[in-house]
Amino acid sequence: MDSFEIIIGLKGTAYIMQDDIKYEVVPSSVLLLLPGHTHTGYRHSTGETSFYWLHFYCHGQNSILNRRDALDEISPLNSTPYFNKLNDSIMLPAFWQPESIEKSVILFKQLLHIANSDYYSSFCTDYSLTTLLLELSQQFIHASLNLNELPNTGGGNFNILLEWIRLNITEEFTIDELAEKFNYNKDYMSRMFKKHLGVSPRKYINGMKILKAKEYLCRFDLSIKEIAYKLGFKDEKYFMKLFKEYENLTPSTYRNAYYRTLYNNE
């Protein structure tokens, strides 16, 4: 084929080979197939198997790097906050499993919706695709450099704290409890969030909750009230107000906006 192809696993395992390299595309894994290379299935899938896939062209310059060269390209991000060499670039590995695939799945659903909604301009799908590719690129760069890793301070570690928030985002906890759990002074922890993430701890946590809510709205048949309670909100009206504040849409409007999904039944 003359285009790139991205495949994101959803259910089961798809067995795909490019040239002589075999890949097992499992849920949450991402495979990038290259133009001008032969790819084929090398084994039958068992049980229910599904994945998202898309083709795209890259009209600008592109190159294939080994892992060492790729890390050398992006390593300045670790020490130079004003490094902007990658501003107009997207960097993707051939095959990997991002730490968090939820946002990419949501962006893929939005892309499918736009592609099938008769938008008057093809730029709509182009921009939506670019957003998806940037998200995948960000996931790869973040995982490769562990950009949030900071020295231990008072027995706590900022990167571990962020990971704990991600894993426990459906629980209800206070900022005081979070600081105490990771042996941080509350004010110092707030400064850490401001310095490295640009937001307060509460705003970051609420943003993560809204991101999880968007996943629930797109992937599960749950009521708004059920989603609010799942995310630790005792008041569904407050959840709806917060969602609109972050997304400029109500939860119901967001869910209804992306109802179309394509299935490859061949």
Automatic annotation (TrEMBL):
Record has rRNA processing as a keyword: no
Pfam families (alphabetical): AraC_binding, HTH_18
Limits of the HTH araC/xylS-type domain: 159-257
Record-linked SMART domains: HTH_ARAC (SM00342)
Lineage top rank: taxon: Bacteria
Keywords, comma-separated and alphabetical: DNA-binding, Transcription, Transcription regulation
InterPro entries membership: AraC-bd, Homeodomain-like_sf, HTH-like, HTH_AraC, HTH_AraC-typ_CS, Tscrpt_reg_AraC-type_HTH
Protein name (database record): AraC family transcriptional regulator
